[in-house]
Amino acid sequence: MKSSKANRSVKWTALMIIGIALPAALARADIIVNQFNTVTGTTEVGQWRFDFGGAAHSATFDPTLDANNNPLSGSMRVDLTFSLGLGGDSKGAYTTDRWYPGLDGSTLGTLQFDLRIDPSSALDAFGNNGYFSIAIRNTDNYNYINQFGDNVRIADGWRHVSVPLTGPYDHIRALTWQLYGGPSQNINGDVILNIDNIKFTEVPEPSTLALLGLAALGTLAIRRRL
To answer: Which of 74, 130, 156, 177 has the fewest CB atoms found within 10 Å of its own CB?
Structure first.
């Protein structure tokens, strides 16, 4: 049976709603901190500075390891040398001073990144490879607001981490990650880690969610009329 003129009108209206809703839903882009692509990888690594800790350290662009196995991308490789003699200072931290005058985190939903420990890395007292944490640095005082912390280990391979932001985050100036290998971890040797795909994801605006609902209704209307 051929569609009536009224049915065709409903279809076109539904398609228009979808056409308006979907671009609006995609309009709020995630905030990419680093992807470490091949062309910009060395420059991106240079956006991170060693911040604190007593572990000997180096940071380089690694074009051979990408969390998504993308041949046109790589990751940030960090070598840290831990020693029992360093005590509580047996750790290494890197910071990127990215946002001035500050990033408003009220529209942000999650912090995401990928992390990998090289198989040659030294083990800690628990058979892991240290305790990794990452924090936002809020306000011009660089207040340390921890977002994630967990033991890391070789067996995980590339580990994708996605965590909801913990406030306050009204004036984000920087990101800091650290790997701890001091007392209780007791690492004595080298740990190599790679980090990739660091980003903040945006929370859709309520109006965008409403438009997505309209798009869903439009799709349903088309199906019913077919």
So the answer is: 156
